[in-house]
Write a structure and sequence with these properties.
The protein is mainly α. It is 56% helix and 0% strand. The chain has 4 helices and no strands. The longest helix is centred in the middle third of the chain and has 16 residues. It is globular and about 30 Å long.
């Protein structure tokens, strides 16, 4: 997976996150739980992490489905 340090992550547009409403500010982009997907490797990782978070009860079914749909679009390109 390509490196995505804090500086690169904060420069991503909100639309490149699985949950863009949780990534509107630079500070929010640095937090976990917003699933950055600038490339296919990160999209695959986001799907895995979302499934784990859902199983742990930290993510709603709707949020997981939204992340999966966005990741699938990136992976299909």
């Amino acid at each position: 997976m390509a490196d995505l340090d804090a500086k690169k992550r904060e420069q991503l547009p909100a639309k490149d996150f699985g949950l863009p409403e949780k990534a509107r500010t630079k500070a929010a982009k640095k937090e976990s739980g917003n699933y950055p997907m600038p490339d296919k490797a990160h999209a695959r990782n986001a799907k895995s992490r979302a499934a784990q978070a859902r199983n742990a009860g930290n993510l709603s079914k709707d949020e997981e489905e939204r992340i999966d749909r966005k990741a699938d679009k990136i992976l299909d390109d």
